[in-house]
Amino acid sequence: MDKMPRWADVALIPFINLVLALAVSALVVLYIGESPVEALQVMIRGSVGSAYGWGFTLYYATNFIFTGLGVAVAFHARMFNIGGEGQAALGGLGVAMVSLYIPWPHWSLALLGATIGAAIFGAAWAAIPAYLQAKRGSHIVITTIMFNFIASALLVYLLVNVFRVPGNMAPETARFAEGARLPNAYDVAPWLGFSRSTPLNVSFFVAVAACIGVWLMIWRTRLGYEIRAYGFSEPGAVYAGINPVRIIMISMLVSGGLSGLMAINSVMGEAERLVIDPVQGAGFVGIAVALMGRSHPVGVFLAALLFGMLYQGGAELEFEMPAVSREMLLVIQALVILFTGALDNMVRTPVARVFLSLRRERA
């Protein structure tokens, strides 16, 4: 079957998937006795209807941009990196160490140091599964998901036995010094109506820069061409002289580093300390973001914004409609993931047939 136009693959199919997911979600809301229209209005108003909503929506979106880009880079090399949770958690460890043990004179220097620390720790945690895949043939899905649990256990041990403040029962580090605290949206643009407590901070601009950097790397460099060639056909890439071990290692290092960067937003920007669970599922959401965004930085950005709206709008919906429980919100989010991921071909196949028939009619 002939391929459909690029715009249909990038925009039309994700849009149809989203509409189908929202339609099924509406049936779920209707089943519990609430109005789907009113629920949708509450979610939109709660996520983008005020500066308060935008502050949380963009904060969540920032997390999902980093983890989505991490998954997307691995996708281009035909690898399914499910280790974003662990890589982001270890990125948080890198951020904490850089922020706690270096006396930064200004937040801009601290941000640069934390970016390097988060990327190194995240990449280092991805390097082990990458080596096992490249040299031992271990499946990347199995090793990365196992390393999520190892990272969680390691972080708990370190927070309880190494970094915990003496006399404090909470498993968390001390708060970062003033020089390592990032300005939030109120500090940058108070005239937009943001409050002092908004979690949105300057790491959002780092996420946008990461989108641009990934686009340049994948589509404007020789390395990016080799990654895409390897992902398209490993035998063809090997025949062309591309080293599979090198591509696997580099792709996973970049993927892990991008996932680790999420900690800049959650650990340094919002919590201002390392806590027991700094990732809170963002690594797994990044998989859905990469799938829905077709592994393109622009698509990842838009999909991350959508999931940020779902997270913040869902919290407002739970508050204003008590009948819609937290579990129900997880069902709605899961439906979006289901239709944009597992059931993608259910939409793709008939849409491709439509374009094929249109092409035949013109011929």
Mean pLDDT rating: 92
Determine the oligomeric state from the structure.
single chain
Task: Tell me the strand percentage band.
Answer: under 5%
Low-confidence stretches: none
Range of helix content: over 70%
What's a quick, concise take on this entry?
This protein is mainly alpha-helical and 363 residues long. Helix content is 74%, strand content 0%.
Written account of the structure:
The chain has 363 residues and is mainly α. It has a domain at 55-297: ABC transporter involved in vitamin B12 uptake, BtuC, CATH 1.10.3470. 74% of the residues lie in helices and 0% in strands. Helix 1 packs antiparallel against helix 15 (326-340) and helix 1 crosses helix 16 (344-362).
Could you outline the blueprint of secondary structure elements for this entry?
Layout: H1 6-31, H2 36-48, H3 51-76, H4 84-101, H5 107-136, H6 140-161, H7 185-188, H8 203-220, H9 222-232, H10 234-239, H11 244-260, H12 262-271, H13 282-292, H14 297-320, H15 326-340, H16 344-362
Task: For the structure shown, list the relevant keywords.
single chain, 363 residues, mainly alpha, ABC transporter involved in vitamin B12 uptake, BtuC
